[in-house]
Amino acid sequence: MHDSSELHAAARAAVNVGRYLEGAALARRGLDRWPDPLTRVRLLGTLAYAEAELGNFDLAESLGDEALALPRLDAESRGTAHGQRALVRLLRGRRADALADFSAAIRLLSANHEDLGRNLLNRGLLYLEAGQAAKALADFEHAVAESETAGLRDQAAKAWHNAGYAAFLLGDYVRALRDMDAVADYFAGQSPAARAVGLQDRAEVLASAGLSDDAIADLRRAVALFRAARAKRAETASLVVLARMLLTENPREGLRIARRASARFAAMGANADRLRADAVAALCAHAADMRRVPDAMALGDQLRHRGLNDEAGQVMLAHCTRLLAQGRLDEAREVRLPRFLRANPNAWVAAVRAERLAALGHRSRALASVRTSLDALHTAQARIGSLELQTSMSGDLRRLGMLGLRLALERRDPALVLEWSERARAASSRVIPVGPPEDPEQAADLAELRTLVAFQTDPVRRQELRRRIRERTWRTGGSHATQPVSSLPEVQAALMRRNATLLALLAIDDAAVALVVSQESASLHELGPLHQVAPLLDGLVADLDVAAADLPAATTATLRASLHDRLARLDALLLAPVAHLLSGGVVLTPSGLFGHIPWPLLPSLAGVGVTVARSATAWVSAPDVGPPTRTLLVAGPRLGRGEEEIDACAAPWQEVTLLAGPAASVANTLAAFPKADLVHVAAHGHHHPQNPLFSSADLADGPVFGYEVQALGTVPDIVIFSACDLGRRTSSDDPLGLATALLHSGVRTVLASPAAIADAAAARLMPGLHARLATGRPVADALAASVAEFGPGAPPLVCFGAGW
User: Which of 176, 597, 601, 762 has its CA 20 to 30 A from that of 107?
Assistant: First the structure.
């Protein structure tokens, strides 16, 4: 290879896929061939970029100056030189100079699709660094068009990926994941460094959306890929991002990583990047509650001087939070807080601003601020179609919601506490759902996963399929619509119509508080400290599971006595103090801490129709429907009395479909689901704790997954799972489980158990339940009567949703 143009093409190709040492060597060989002025400019620019990525910033910038100093350059050559020097200046942190160079290049290169696209791409990166995401998105979209016109697939893919990152900064997680995933396979085939860039940016989206475990795993892979490519600067930058993600999971590890990155950047002379690492180290030190933390005010000034306003704002937020926790209100008052941050702009900023207002005595202003910010975040949440992603985002809402709830409780106003009880829990229940689109690839992956799970083969492939199934749903857009929080009069009107009482059990700091709303009044009651409740909740599900096992009679009696004592003590703490206020049916909206309690088995609720709603708003908005008439009964395999159970349950129904044996296949069951008003599945159930939408019930040809039931366009009013664990949920104030998914998809009422169910007990209880349902009794009432009739040892079934 003797031609300098060919050497430049080879050098640029190597640099574009992260092979910087190889690219630099090829560029030097090209310069030794005495190229023409334009080719010389391009070779100098490629060499400068490679040296910058290798951490040699002084050399890189001098090469850019050399290119612009060449005599008799035409417009295209000068534009090329400006663009190349701008990129080096951007990497070094000289943003104002870089912006001027990029803009000059774009003006000079208007007729060159290839170079114009490249400089639009690079200026977009600068806008991203400056937090100007809307301008960045416009540049990236323009760069995609110019690059595709020039036939440059690699450049177009980079612009497309970065458009996704800009969309993320603008709060559009669905578009961000769509754009990034659209080109992920392309980058995966290019080089380790190219794949790493995609993983790092995508990890930031996932972390901001609350999927911390997925984000950290992706970022650790990115660090390893950068290291393999010997991309020292990129590897160090990715370590800073990793440290930031560890802020809540493991801040001490994050602190160690950030300090190491800072030292590396200092050795490179990359002072702006060093300051970024120092900012993350300061955040981790605050999160780890270290006694000695960096001087936040001095660090903030340095960051702002470098134009790193976002990082300065984060340091000020952490500093103010620390001052407030220490009661240093005068100092906290003087801290300069940001108006927004680039990613997820409202949650953290709004929380600290409101906490400062409240601490300084401006509680009404704090509450108004939190209300406005929460509404904006709920609107952003409604842009997402994936229930998993909606619930994972609720972590950002929780701090705001709990602050609002604390302020409301201070006022002792039941109407205000009801509002904030709603805002602090089950945020996704306010999102008006949309049905997922038909997706043959998703259906095929679920079918393959079913076979592998049924035969317990190929765990690596199972993990890959689960990853693909989850990620595909993340790219689904939402309805962009939310349900307004129901007011106290609206709740009371619904309670009167359905003859019920609302009991909201709240966990706030170490206190358990009950809000009781009757048809005519509302009141607040202190229940006591949570540390008395927590030991009773620990091991509750395990006790329920053991009590359902087939054990000798003497052992069973002992276990049931222990379980009865545990439930009685929970009842005494949570329900007995307010039991006299409960009349008619009971609508429970418990905090996530109480999510695994089998409420119908508690003494104060014996014989009482009780339903657990995701929120009072969701319960009020559930439409009234008539009693079920079309019934589907399904018996899965390997269940001792499953067919006997559904045969007995079918007796009181006129229009009934039974599926058992080979007929109880996944396809037959899913096909019959939309045609029924009531569906009863008697099968072995499996709760998937890492992602409850993979929870399943065993049918003739394998498990039917929550994803498949959730995807049905038409759903029954009532679903009954005579199966273990399918009422189990993640413990949070926006819990996710199979019951949640069904309620979100439009099912009004779900009957399921948070623990194991004995086959014999289910077969004994369910026929009486169906006999009552067939007469038109509400599900919650029918369950209460059936449990009372059963007596001691009744299965721990819970009614979720409307209940009536």
Answer: 176
